[in-house]
Amino acid sequence: MGRFRDALEGPGLAAIAEVKRRSPSAGDLRPEADPARLARDFERAGAAAVSILVDERFGGSLDDLRTARAATDAPLLAKGFFRTEVELDELREGGADAVLVLLRDLPDDRAAALIAHARQLGLDTLVEAHDAVELERAVRLGADPIGVNARDLATFRIDRRAQLELVARAPRDRVVVAESGISSRAGGAEAELAGANAILVGSALMRAGDPGEKLSELIRRPLVKVCGLTRAEDVGAAAEAGADLAGFVLASESPRRAEQVLSVPDGMLSVAVLVGELRDEPEADLVQLYAREGDHRGRDAVLLREGREVARVADLPWQQADPDHLRRASALRGRLMLAGGLSPENVAEAIAAVSPWAVDASSSLELEPGIKDHERIRAFVAAAR
């Protein structure tokens, strides 16, 4: 395996930032894009790799690859519609570390030949699938990494649901890249929780005033959850403040119980908070499930996606304090959401001590149970950032 794949396999969610002047579906995105400057900016912003469109239909060329190669040490993915070994030779000479192999355009024998030739050249291949049949083909061909594109190249329609289902089905021993349709931290986190090691983002970066800053925003952690929401106007305030997760407590004994999981805007994920046994799956993106201890919740919880544990939640005991809470949380391994007594005043200190994947606040952001103080929400999100 080469350095492109290795760069995507590390802990956390990696990002491949794409240089793309135009799109056949959206038209011009950033016609004046400078591959050298963008590649440097993306590397500084935390990109694990940089993707360069070398196809003229996207306003790209092989010179763009050469220019980016001279400007950055980051692994470079050359993207285009490649069919021959000669093309791979040119891309390797131009500075590529990896090339796209698009199964939509290639029969298995041609795809296998390109993968084998790329390996001889020291190139990684990002083998891209768009549906279940292509995913099965990619697995059978030994593809690693595998790209799962949310965009149908025939209709240009984005289907994130279908993409996430395929990501979840991909073998866990392969590096999986979720491509297209991601424009927010929550969108990236959604792919991550489905099983993606990395996201590939192009259009959202090219449309941004500052592409590097937009990339930093997409991969910045921790995520921020505002919990105990019961009103649509409070959901809106949390979204406007920049929160990523909206929590709805469905436990009957809670003073901030919501009647249902409310709709959340694009760029947010909904979280149903339950106590006790999970019976019917609620209409939410995620479930935060606590054990029941007598007539109240247990201390910690698990975060579930379609019934599968994707994170742990470190919380305080029911209506109790714990001076060792942060030290205890910092010792927990894996993806962690930190909850329990967080507020605008202490969340920055808590993040520094624990380095969590997400932070969760509820009662400290209220005027009364279930009714949020919008100023406190804004202050919490700003402090967590």
What's the total count of β strands?
Answer: 20
What is the CATH fold-level name of the largest domain? TIM Barrel
C-alpha Rg (nearest Å)? 22 Å
Structural class: alpha/beta
Major sheet: size, sense and barrel closure?
A: 8 strands, parallel, barrel
Strand content: 15-25%
How would you characterize the overall build of this protein?
The longest helix is centred in the first third of the chain and has 14 residues, at 108-121. The protein has helices at residues 3-8, 35-45, 62-71, 85-94, 108-121, 132-140, 160-169, 185-194, 203-206, 211-219, 232-241, 325-330, 347-354, 374-384, and strands spanning 14-19, 22-23, 27-28, 49-53, 76-79, 98-102, 124-129, 146-149, 176-179, 198-201, 223-226, 245-249, 269-275, 286-293, 296-305, 308-314, 336-338, 358-361, 366-368, 371-372. It is built from 14 helices and 20 strands. The protein has 385 residues and is α/β, with parallel strands linked by helices.
Summarize the structure.
The chain is of the alpha/beta class.
Secondary-structure blueprint:
Layout: H1 3-8, E1 14-19, E2 22-23, E3 27-28, H2 35-45, E4 49-53, H3 62-71, E5 76-79, H4 85-94, E6 98-102, H5 108-121, E7 124-129, H6 132-140, E8 146-149, H7 160-169, E9 176-179, H8 185-194, E10 198-201, H9 203-206, H10 211-219, E11 223-226, H11 232-241, E12 245-249, E13 269-275, E14 286-293, E15 296-305, E16 308-314, H12 325-330, E17 336-338, H13 347-354, E18 358-361, E19 366-368, E20 371-372, H14 374-384
Parallel strand pairs: 1-4, 1-10, 4-5, 5-6, 6-7, 7-8, 8-9, 9-10, 11-12, 11-18, 12-13, 13-14, 16-17, 17-18
Antiparallel strand pairs: 2-3, 14-15, 15-16, 19-20
Helix pairs in contact: 2-3, 2-10, 4-5, 11-14
